# Entry
Amino acid sequence: MPTDPVSALSQLPATAAITYRGMSGPPPNAAFTLGDILPTSADPRVASENFTSERVAAIVTMTGRSIAPMSRHPEELEIAILPGTLLLPAGAIAVPGLTNPVVLLTEKGWAPELPESRAELERTVIEHVTHAMAQPAVPIFSPGRFTPPRRSAGQ
# Structure
């Protein structure tokens, strides 16, 4: 039985999904490789801590690991993205009601569970975020888990 979190998560099946994370600061403008586990949520409201984050990122993953069934808070719908995952910036999607567009990040590749075209992906993200915005606030069990604190000027 693996004892470190990355080895344990690596044993779980990969989950192709659109998942979300809150962001602060400018969106990335170049590909980057994750150095640590990146907690995300299939629910944009959870990921953005009730839309209090500066930005929302939609991440198209083929290799994330759904940990919701074994989580202490399964309603967070957590999908962990493993270290070493390469994420590519893929633009932004304007969603009515949000100040900043949703940042789109993606892994290379495609899976049958994912939208087949850019237009379908944009529609899906707009639907997910719009639906989440219409829902009541959710409890935030671990502040900062899915969204970093806002950066202040000069940081």
User: Anything to note?
Assistant: The beta strands are 15-23, 32-33, 38-41, 55-66, 78-81, 86-93, 102-106. The first helix runs from residue 5 to 10. The CA atoms of residues 121 and 154 lie 35 Å apart.
